Structures are given as structure tokens and as C-alpha cells.
Amino acid sequence: MLIGFSPAHLQPGQTVDGWRVVKPLGAGSFGAVYLVEKDGHRFAMKLAMHRASSGDSEQADARLLREMVCLSQVSGHPNIVRVHAHGRWQHPTQGWLYIVLDYVEGYTLGEWVEKTHPTAHEVARVFGKLSGALSHLHSRGVFHRDLKLGNILVRAADGEPFILDFSAGDYTLAPELTDTPLPPGTRRYRSPEASRFLREHGDNQDARYEFKATDDVYALGVCLYDVLTNPQPVSEAPHVLMGARWPPPAPHALNPRVPAALGAAAMHYIALHPEKRAPSAEVMRRELDALLREEGEAWMATVHVPTPHLQLALGVAHNDEAPPSTPKRAVGRRVAGAVAVLALLVASLAGYLALRPTAPVQQAQRMEEPAAPSPSTDAGAAMSVAPSVPPTPSVSSPGVALPPPAPVEKESPPVKRAPARISPSAESTTRKPKALASRPSWPPSPWAGFLKTCAGATAAAALSLGCPGAQVRPAPGDCPAEARDAMFNRANKNGLRMRPGQAVMLTLDIRQPGPMGDGGFYSDGPVTGVVRISDHPGLPEGTQLSGYLWTSGEAAVGRYTEARLPDGRTVPVCVLIGRNGYLAKGPNSRPGAMELNKSASAYLVERWP
Description:
about 600 residues; alpha+beta; Phosphorylase Kinase, domain 1; Transferase(Phosphotransferase), domain 1; 3 domains; six-stranded antiparallel sheet; six-stranded antiparallel barrel; globular
């Protein structure tokens, strides 16, 4: 006997033909979607909101069946979700129809813009892949007919986009389900010719609009237009009412951060007349792929300034009041910066060489201990000169912010303790680094030995070692085997039991808490992140991650190497911030203080990029 409830009311733990419900993902007019699990694998299950025999005027059952057929005809493309199973629950002929699809863990296209702040190059790459998927659809005789920001997902692990929700889709020789002139869809993404047809034939119940490939191209073009012009497409209404006047303002006219070539491409896809529009999704793909060869700062910068309101909170002018600099001025600043870097590097080495002969003198003045100084003590003594004389900045690499004073002092006992050696009893203080390990996660234990080595190294050695303050970005390399085992080994009962590429939302540093949309200023040094949003029981909210942040150049690199879970367990990890392993700096960054969002996506990886 069928249970008399809506599919939208399934509860976690219930099973549907052996698929265990984990949690609801969403519901609409035609279907409800759940995250389900079977044999250790996760999928998305979509159930029709009505059974075939329920007399549903929206024909939800028939539309889900059509979605399954559409997806079956276009299976195999990497940017279209796949169907893995289907059936009727709890009766083979009268039950609720369901289909089991790929579960894409990530963001809708609008959320992707708000949360990850993509660059122009990334936008072109994502839409190039989407237009390729659309071309694949059309080549199989399938139309989506409801492309919009909410029907496209971007996977958090690698930024791959996916087209989903074919409930309004159509295919060659499909049975007619619509009793209105236009198919179901969203008005904003409706092509001008479809709107014109509705105006001219809206009173004719037998009129049916012949949907074409250029209609899907137009809808995807509107998605691109919105991504380029609206920094918060989920939270805010569109900035331009399509069709209010034609043509609408070009994206690069509304948003100067958009490269003109990318803005012109978007305008080509939403042209008023279909004959002036890109004639096919394949042409669209080729045009966008050609843009990936473009170079320059404008293509590598974020399309929107991250969370524009945060400048007001920081007490500075709103970014909209100060248009971004032109590429020419930006290049000039970069050249000037490069010259300054070289000058400071020469000065730093000269300063070090000038200071080095004074080290034995200073060492002799403090020679109250009978033991002869070791080479490492000499290095520490040489470093200890820097804080007491003007050339202090010369120890760090030009253009690289110095680490925060407190952590560096903790990692460099000879630097901190040398002036205080007034009695032989001070010898016991040389083992103070052990106090560092007892202080939870500050800095993380995996960095302690490395930082101690850096503290005792000469300036030239620090540069060659790649010490904090002496490198722009840490080198790539494999994640340690014990960390990979703790993160990804399903048989490890004390591990996280996660998969490579899975992501959480992280507050970068516990010392700078606040709302996720706020920004802060960071310099090189140890950080302790806090997991704020997580769907993974292995790495739950509240977990603290210990790591190090590099803030040189145009981007910040953050690596976390130890996780302290809420239950008290501590495990080694390899977690990096940013989908590509870095975060672009904010517009108010200055030397030694890089502006970043206080929160960012963090990814579990097998290898440091």
C-alpha cells in the first residue's frame, strides 16, 4: 500500500529502494531532491512530486520521465550530470517515480560568484565548458529550455561546471506536455523572439513556439552577463532589466573590471536578433576558448571586488567610489615595484655583510658562559643584531611582509633572550622552544622546526631555504603519507575518512573572527583557522586547523597541516585555501598587510600545488 505523503517529506535515515536518505537538497514544483547514499557512495535522488495517476495538471511525473530520457540521450559529456538508476517507489507501476543522478558538491553559478570571486579568465573557462556541454545537447537533438544561474552547478573541488535540471527539457519526437504557447522557463532568460511570439500569439491556445538552439545560447548568454555585472546574483536582484531597452549596457561599461573582449562576447550571445547572435553553442564555445589565450592583469584579477561592503566596515571608501586603475598604470606600478624589490635585495645583502663582522664582538661582550659558541649560536647571534640597529627590514626579502612579531620571537629564542643573558643561570633558557609546543597550535608543530632553522640562518641562507619572509610562494610537493592516511584512508578509524578535493568554509585565523563577508589584513606568519561551514562529519564545524600564511605578491598562499577536532583528536592534514591554492589580495592591501576575506573555501589535497 502506498504511503500517503509527499516525496518532499522524506526524513534522513529513511530508505527508498535501498537508497538511504542523508538530507534534503531542495524541492520545486516538479520534484524533490535528496542526497542519498548506497554502498558508501553518494548520489542525488530526484522524486516526482506527483504520481502518474494523480491527475497532476503540471504533469510532474511525465516531466521527470522526460528529464531521464534527455539525460540518457546526452550521457557521456563531462559537464552534464549523469543518470545512474531510476525506478518507482513503492509500486512498480503506480509508485513515485525517481531518478538517481550524480551528486555535485559545490555551488550554483550565482553562489560561485558570491563565494569564490572568480577571475575573468575563470569565468571564460567555466562558460566555455558550459557552451561545449550545450553544443553536445543540441547535437543529440536535446534542448534544455531553462538554463539559468540556479540550474548550473560548479564543483567546489576543481571548479568544473555542470548543467542539471532538465525538467523543462525537450528532445526530438518528445510527446507534447505544454498547453501554453511557450514551454516552462524563467522569464529573464527568455529570448526576445520567444517574448515577441508570446505577445503576438498569447491568445491562441493552439500556438506553440518552436524552440531553437539560439534560445539556449541566449539564456546562457544572460547567465554570463549576470555573472559579469552582478557581484551578488543570489542575494540581489539583477542590475539590468533585460528587454527594458536594447541593447543593454555592455558588461565592461557597467563593471570596468571586465575585459572588453569578454564583455563584447557576452553581448554577442544576447543580441536582439537571432541572426546577429552566435548561431550555435559550438561557435560560443570557440569564441570563449579563444579568450583563454588572452593575457594581462585584467584577466587574472577578480571580476568583482570581494564583498564590496567590507571597505565601509574597515573605515575606508567604498570601492565603487574609486574606479580601478587602468592596466597601464597598474603595469607601471608593477615595474616600479620590481625595481624597488631589486634595490632592497641588494641593500639587504649589503646590510647583512656590513653587520656580520660585528657579530663576534657582540658575542664576546656576552661571553659569560664557559662553553665555546657553536656555528648555530653564531647564526643566532648574527640575527640578534638586526632588532637593535636600523637595517632591520633587510633581513626579509623585499616585497615580502615580515611574520608577526610574537610568533617569530617564540620561534627564535636566541633573538629574544640574547639581551637578557646577565647570569650563567640564563643557560637554561636556551631550550625555551619546548614551551612553544605546549601552546596549542601556535604556531603549528609541523612548522616549528622549519621556523627555528630560518631564525638561525643567515639572510642568504634564508633566501635559499625559502623561509617565511624570504619567498613569494612555497614550493609544490606531495602531502606527507601520514596526513594522506589520516584524511583519506576509509579504514583508519581515527582518521577523517574524506575524499581528495572535498571542501569546507574556513575562517582564516582565529585572531580575526567575524562574519564571513568581512575582510581583514594579514601578514606572513602562523595562523589557526576554524571550520565554519561543513557538510562532512569527518571535518565538522568548530575544527581548528593550524597552518601558515604567505602574503607576498598578488595573492596569499595558506597551508594548514594539523587539525584539532571538537572531540579532542589531533590529526595531520594537508589543507589549502582557495580552489587554485591561493587567494587574490583585496584592493586596500599595502606592504606588510594584505587584505583578504576573513573566510574562504579550504580544500583537502594529496599534493601541495
